[in-house]
Amino acid sequence: MKVKQVYLAGFLLLLTGVTVLGCNTANKSNPTVSVDSTKVTSSGDAITGSKETLKGCYIAVLKRDTLQLAITSVNGESVEGSLIFNFAEKDRSKGQFEGKYKNGILAGNYKFNSEGTFSERQVIFKKVQGGFIEGFGKVKMVNNKEVFVKEDEAEFDQTNIFRYTEKCLN
Q1: Burial status of residue 101 (CB atoms within 10 A of its CB: 0-12, 13-18, 19 or more)
Q2: In terms of Cα–Cα distance, which of 106, 112, 105, 56 is closest to 87?
Protein backbone atom coordinates (compact mmCIF):
# COMPACT_ATOMS: atom_id res chain seq x y z
CA MET A 1 0.00 0.00 0.00
CA LYS A 2 2.82 2.42 0.84
CA VAL A 3 4.42 1.85 -2.58
CA LYS A 4 1.20 3.00 -4.30
CA GLN A 5 1.12 6.12 -2.11
CA VAL A 6 4.75 6.93 -3.02
CA TYR A 7 3.98 6.56 -6.72
CA LEU A 8 0.84 8.68 -6.37
CA ALA A 9 2.74 11.40 -4.47
CA GLY A 10 5.48 11.38 -7.14
CA PHE A 11 2.91 11.62 -9.93
CA LEU A 12 1.13 14.54 -8.24
CA LEU A 13 4.44 16.33 -7.71
CA LEU A 14 5.35 15.85 -11.38
CA LEU A 15 1.92 17.06 -12.48
CA THR A 16 2.23 20.17 -10.28
CA GLY A 17 5.66 20.95 -11.75
CA VAL A 18 4.39 20.63 -15.33
CA THR A 19 1.41 22.86 -14.52
CA VAL A 20 3.63 25.53 -12.96
CA LEU A 21 6.00 25.49 -15.95
CA GLY A 22 3.06 25.72 -18.34
CA CYS A 23 1.67 28.73 -16.51
CA ASN A 24 5.02 30.51 -16.56
CA THR A 25 5.40 30.17 -20.33
CA ALA A 26 1.81 31.22 -20.98
CA ASN A 27 2.41 34.63 -19.40
CA LYS A 28 5.36 35.54 -21.64
CA SER A 29 4.72 38.20 -24.22
CA ASN A 30 4.80 37.30 -27.88
CA PRO A 31 8.12 37.90 -29.61
CA THR A 32 8.27 40.83 -31.98
CA VAL A 33 10.00 40.78 -35.33
CA SER A 34 11.36 43.74 -37.25
CA VAL A 35 12.73 43.45 -40.74
CA ASP A 36 15.44 45.26 -42.62
CA SER A 37 16.30 44.26 -46.18
CA THR A 38 18.08 40.98 -45.38
CA LYS A 39 17.89 40.40 -41.64
CA VAL A 40 15.18 39.64 -39.14
CA THR A 41 15.67 40.88 -35.59
CA SER A 42 13.78 38.94 -32.94
CA SER A 43 13.02 39.98 -29.39
CA GLY A 44 11.17 38.29 -26.58
CA ASP A 45 12.61 34.82 -27.16
CA ALA A 46 15.84 32.87 -26.77
CA ILE A 47 17.63 34.89 -29.44
CA THR A 48 16.80 38.30 -28.05
CA GLY A 49 18.97 40.98 -29.53
CA SER A 50 20.54 38.70 -32.12
CA LYS A 51 20.16 38.89 -35.86
CA GLU A 52 19.37 35.92 -38.04
CA THR A 53 19.37 35.92 -41.80
CA LEU A 54 16.31 35.04 -43.83
CA LYS A 55 18.09 31.83 -44.79
CA GLY A 56 16.38 28.67 -43.70
CA CYS A 57 13.33 26.53 -44.24
CA TYR A 58 9.77 27.69 -43.81
CA ILE A 59 7.01 25.06 -43.85
CA ALA A 60 3.23 25.31 -44.01
CA VAL A 61 0.97 22.34 -43.30
CA LEU A 62 -2.64 22.49 -44.47
CA LYS A 63 -4.58 19.37 -43.63
CA ARG A 64 -2.69 16.77 -45.71
CA ASP A 65 -0.72 19.26 -47.85
CA THR A 66 2.85 20.28 -47.00
CA LEU A 67 4.49 23.35 -48.54
CA GLN A 68 8.07 24.55 -48.13
CA LEU A 69 9.96 27.73 -48.91
CA ALA A 70 13.70 27.15 -48.46
CA ILE A 71 15.91 30.25 -48.69
CA THR A 72 19.48 29.20 -49.43
CA SER A 73 21.14 32.47 -50.46
CA VAL A 74 20.67 36.15 -49.61
CA ASN A 75 22.87 38.76 -51.28
CA GLY A 76 21.57 42.28 -50.69
CA GLU A 77 18.00 42.22 -51.99
CA SER A 78 18.62 39.10 -54.15
CA VAL A 79 17.26 35.85 -52.74
CA GLU A 80 17.57 32.30 -54.03
CA GLY A 81 16.10 29.06 -52.83
CA SER A 82 13.60 26.35 -53.57
CA LEU A 83 9.90 25.70 -53.22
CA ILE A 84 8.03 22.45 -52.72
CA PHE A 85 4.26 22.18 -53.01
CA ASN A 86 3.38 18.65 -51.87
CA PHE A 87 -0.36 18.35 -52.31
CA ALA A 88 -2.08 15.19 -51.07
CA GLU A 89 -4.55 14.90 -53.94
CA LYS A 90 -2.96 17.07 -56.64
CA ASP A 91 0.26 17.13 -58.59
CA ARG A 92 3.37 17.82 -56.54
CA SER A 93 5.74 20.54 -57.72
CA LYS A 94 9.34 21.14 -56.76
CA GLY A 95 11.76 23.68 -58.16
CA GLN A 96 13.98 26.72 -57.82
CA PHE A 97 13.11 30.22 -56.69
CA GLU A 98 14.93 33.46 -57.54
CA GLY A 99 13.69 36.84 -56.43
CA LYS A 100 14.09 40.06 -54.48
CA TYR A 101 13.35 40.83 -50.83
CA LYS A 102 12.41 44.42 -50.14
CA ASN A 103 10.19 46.10 -47.52
CA GLY A 104 9.04 42.76 -46.12
CA ILE A 105 8.02 41.37 -49.51
CA LEU A 106 9.74 38.44 -51.22
CA ALA A 107 8.80 38.29 -54.90
CA GLY A 108 10.28 36.34 -57.75
CA ASN A 109 10.09 33.48 -60.22
CA TYR A 110 9.43 29.85 -59.42
CA LYS A 111 10.77 27.41 -62.04
CA PHE A 112 9.53 23.89 -61.38
CA ASN A 113 8.65 20.44 -62.63
CA SER A 114 5.29 18.89 -61.99
CA GLU A 115 4.37 15.48 -63.41
CA GLY A 116 7.21 15.72 -65.93
CA THR A 117 6.26 19.16 -67.24
CA PHE A 118 8.49 22.24 -66.80
CA SER A 119 6.65 25.43 -65.82
CA GLU A 120 7.40 28.91 -64.52
CA ARG A 121 5.28 31.27 -62.48
CA GLN A 122 5.62 34.39 -60.41
CA VAL A 123 5.30 33.98 -56.63
CA ILE A 124 5.11 36.51 -53.81
CA PHE A 125 5.45 36.16 -50.04
CA LYS A 126 5.06 38.64 -47.18
CA LYS A 127 7.27 38.43 -44.06
CA VAL A 128 5.23 38.04 -40.88
CA GLN A 129 6.12 37.14 -37.31
CA GLY A 130 7.54 33.63 -37.42
CA GLY A 131 7.66 33.18 -41.18
CA PHE A 132 6.05 34.10 -44.48
CA ILE A 133 2.57 34.10 -46.02
CA GLU A 134 1.96 33.55 -49.71
CA GLY A 135 0.23 36.10 -51.90
CA PHE A 136 -2.45 35.35 -54.46
CA GLY A 137 -4.14 37.41 -57.14
CA LYS A 138 -5.30 37.56 -60.73
CA VAL A 139 -2.77 36.07 -63.12
CA LYS A 140 -2.13 36.04 -66.85
CA MET A 141 0.21 34.13 -69.17
CA VAL A 142 3.14 36.08 -70.61
CA ASN A 143 5.71 34.15 -72.70
CA ASN A 144 4.56 30.80 -71.23
CA LYS A 145 4.95 32.14 -67.68
CA GLU A 146 2.14 32.80 -65.20
CA VAL A 147 2.48 36.34 -63.79
CA PHE A 148 0.35 38.58 -61.61
CA VAL A 149 -1.81 41.07 -63.48
CA LYS A 150 -1.00 43.60 -60.74
CA GLU A 151 1.63 42.43 -58.25
CA ASP A 152 0.81 45.26 -55.82
CA GLU A 153 -2.78 43.97 -55.55
CA ALA A 154 -1.79 40.51 -54.32
CA GLU A 155 -3.78 39.33 -51.30
CA PHE A 156 -1.98 37.44 -48.57
CA ASP A 157 -3.57 34.41 -46.89
CA GLN A 158 -3.11 35.07 -43.15
CA THR A 159 -4.25 31.54 -42.25
CA ASN A 160 -1.46 29.77 -44.14
CA ILE A 161 1.85 30.69 -42.52
CA PHE A 162 5.11 29.20 -43.72
CA ARG A 163 6.80 28.90 -40.30
CA TYR A 164 10.55 28.75 -39.76
CA THR A 165 11.82 25.27 -38.98
CA GLU A 166 15.21 23.68 -38.37
CA LYS A 167 14.36 20.70 -40.60
CA CYS A 168 13.90 20.99 -44.36
CA LEU A 169 11.97 18.61 -46.57
CA ASN A 170 13.93 16.74 -49.23
Answers
A1: buried
A2: 112
